[in-house]
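The instructor's notes for this session suggest beginning with a concrete chain rather than abstract definitions. Hand out the sequence below and ask the class to guess, before any prediction is shown, which regions might be ordered.
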Amino acid sequence: MKMFPFVVAVAVMSGSISTAQAAGVEDADPAKVASCTFLKDVSAPTSTGKYTRAALGAAMEQGRDEAAKVGATHIVWNKIVDNDVSNVSGKAYRCPK
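After discussion, reveal the predicted structure:
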């Protein structure tokens, strides 16, 4: 069990676990973050500029990583209104545990 923190640290440094997953940044809705502290707006480009699951997933993971770097616990994503998506954006919050 003493090796678990070391294994997690190595996995994060090697890129097999993102910083957002390690930090526990959760997707949320506005109601869930009503009593939380707003930290910053985050955004990330999609790799293809198209509305595909893979492109959106990768961009959202980049946004979660950006949120994790400022200590966020939750992120509320802005709605996507067009099929020609060049980036995703949202608001990062820190909520009490």
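Then share the key points. The chain is about 35% helix and 25% strand. Confidence is low (pLDDT under 50) at residues 1-14.
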